[in-house]
User: Fold this.
Amino acid sequence: MRASFRERLGRFGLLGPAVAYVASVAVMPVVFTLWLSLRKQMPIFGISQFVGLQNYLFLMRDARFRGAVGHTGYFVLVAVTLELTLGLAIALLLHQKFPGRGLARALVLIPWAVPSVVAARFWEWTLNADFGVLNFLLRTRINWLGDPFWAMHAAILADVWKTTPFMVLLLLAGLQVIPEHLYRAARIDGANSWQAFRHITLPLLKPIILLALLFRTMDAARVFDLIYVLTGGGPGNQTETLVIYAYNLLYRTLQFGYGSSVAVATFFFIVLLSLAYLRELRRTWQMRE
Amino acid sequence: MQNALILRRLLLFAALGLILSFVLAPFAWQVITALKPTAQLAELPPLLPAHPTWQNFGTVLGAPGFWRACLNSAIVASLTVFLAFALGVPAAYALAKLRLRGAQLVLATLLCFSMFPAIANVAPLYLLFIRLGIRDSALAVVIAHSVFAIPFAIWTLTSFFKEIPDDLYRAARVDGCSHLGVLRHVVLPLASPGLLSVALLVFIFSWNEFLYALTLTASERSRTLPVAIALFPGLHEIPWGEIAAASVLATVPTILLMLVFQRRIVSGLTTGAVKG
Amino acid sequence: MGSRASLGPRHRAGLVVGSLALAAISLSGCPRRQASQPDQRVTLVFKHAQHPRYAFLTELIQRFEAENPGIRVREEILPASTDEQHQFYVINLAARAADFDVLDMDVIWVPEFARAGWLMELTPGVTEIERAPLFPAALRADWLEEKLYAVPWFVDAGVLYYRKDLLDKHGFLPPQTYPELLETARSVLTAERDPKLTGFIWQGKQYEGLVCSALEFIRGNGGDLLREGGRPALTEPPTLEALHFMSDMVRRYDVTPPLVTTLNEEASRHIFQSGRAIFMRNWPYAWPLLQQPGSRVAGRIGMTLVPHFPGHTSTPTLGGFHVGVNARSPHKKEALAFVRFLLRYDVQKQILLKVGVLPAHSQVYDDAEVRQKLPQISELLHSLQQVEPRPATPYYMMISHILQPELSAVVAGIRPPKQAMRSAELQIEHLLGLL
Assistant:
């Protein structure tokens, strides 16, 4: 019995600090935002009253909110898919042995290392239809950031460039953990590279892939700086995402109550997206045990 | 046989070349922009400046508060990594190796709280820090950053720790190792690629984070590098050359870190440690 | 085996000690706001946006400190992005923090902050005499219910830049009306036959600058955003006509490039500076940059009033920043003294000559030294005398939030002006009804 108690104490000692820390710092802002979302709070006009779920009811009728959901969903879908595909391909490549591998690995990390506050402005500069270097190299005058169609895709391009290294790093670390002897055994059995990839690499990499997808999806759904700098949510609000809409409501128009409800809605949107990954991840871990 | 090998090699390098150009071209363009004289920033052609100048780099390096901002960023990022590991490693270990009821729930809840959009969190956190009297300090920024870093570290490290075969873990426990001992002698060495990757990612995240760093700092004393760069523009004017130079300089330390640590990330499980 | 562990116990201990030390360093010197320093001096905190030549602002502040030995002024700088400044002020003022005494505000925030009760009343502290030389259009935003809550310390007005060399070459005078501008641009474009040259660029990105540009078209046709009484006037014929013209410039006449929907101040400045535009609407800040050695258009440009439509007058949009005092400041008397210092003639003159922004004190523009050093100042004075502020209502930020996407939709050709403005009007009326 005593050992069991010590065991349990040991476990609390291992988990406790992390949980306590996150709980004490992160819970308060979330609870505060939830509380605000149930109110009509406009300090400019001295309005501060409890309105229950009225904000959320209005959200459902708000065309601008629906647009934001659509734009965010599209961005997440396309960007994350591209980042995973590209990231996996690059990670597999960098997993091979070749001279200069170390340097290549370090260089691939550069986009992730550039401060995002600069990267967004830099892409705004590069994608300018008149003096941007992209149009100069392509010998065209595509209005990347000002055309309703191109604007979202230009933002996706910038995001893919910036965050693929994150995927690469995680996937590369995951590839390192796969034991060499499995591949050797497969080759002895006569399997080719593609079969080795499908039956050894992918299954063993699955947890890391799911994890990388999870974090990237969470981040992509919360995209703000990049699009805000590139297009301001335009043209004609065609690239306004959920967080941009929430930001405008909170800090431009000082509608703290309604803005908070958009933030909470964004949170639930992310939770929904993540649930699929989480469930699959749990299944994979359970299968291993 | 030889030809197939050479072909493979060629394909490899071609693919590598393509990837590296995609990754590096924008950065190279930033470097070129940083070397262009101010009056010709938006001129295309020429792609390369006829008279490249170091002036932008000079202005940035000589800007008051730049070096202090670099130091602050380094402190904040290092402390964030330390905190993420100090709290995250034991927690990930517990979640990965010990059969804990409700472990998944704990994990998921931690994750939930870090998923909340930062723009909604920043105001209440800021007000809390004012009441605590730590506004305008690196500590406030570290606390804010680690709220995101810790769940990320726990989740990722849990996954890496789970890769370590249970036999090893059980063998060490049978030998009488305490949890800390198992951590030290079995888990950490074997998971070092994952550890270093997580450390690097957390460091870079903290080094580059902007929103919290901007809101929670007010003066040169605690200002971090991204905020210092955001202060370059004037009312309407945006000194592109200087911003490009600053961004190049801000990227270099993290690349150096990666160069130093990537060798460690390479090595995987030692042969002989796992049998079957 | 143990040597490969990355966190050995000794390393751990060292890290703990080291980081505690670092944390201690970063914690130390934390600013606790006290009523007065041990040496009995009052410290004012002046929160303001970044300026390129802020070293000169610091000089002026030192002069204030020399003249007022009991007061020290500490500057805290915010990024130039007005969004970030607004966010900072909102968080602090809504929380009733007293972290700063004097604040530097964009003109469009003043009615909002005043209505929220966040600003200290400046009358009668700032006297009638001190206010008289300030541009009346700028002061209009500072009054709420007969009380003054802020004063302008520098102003801004939209101007039209033109390529003097191109106009001279083809025998045109700088246009005064938009139809004239259109004609001139089309003729020059046809004659020059340069595929890279465009006619007229302005700020068309979806942000506040778009409202500034659009207002010059709208008001130049006798229209406006709001009528007396605060009701929206967006669907009235003069407004719709002006918006149709804006859209036609892009789509029908090919005088404005479609990429105008991506342009902010700097992007348009760069295009003009590379010689690829005949006309540009921008703020006066661009003039010294366009004239700097190395610029393709140095010595070949002119500046004039923004155009208008026939039968109406030129109405540049007012910009600029105002100073106010935090209503929760513990040093109201000293803050007021600092505000009045900033309005002084000699200080305003230095703000123009050294810091390089347009002062709010109108008499500075007649100063002999100023006229000698900055010959284009008379043109700027002309603009400042005709300038109109954006609607000085506490609802302005909300209106702008609704209007920006709709204006952007018009410029990008996504929606016709009538539909866009109808939608904006509905949203504004809904908002006003909610309040």
User: Anything to note?
Assistant: The longest helix of chain A spans residues 2-37. The beta strands of chain A are 39-42, 47-50. Chain A has a mean pLDDT of 89. The first strand of chain A starts at residue 39 and ends at 42.
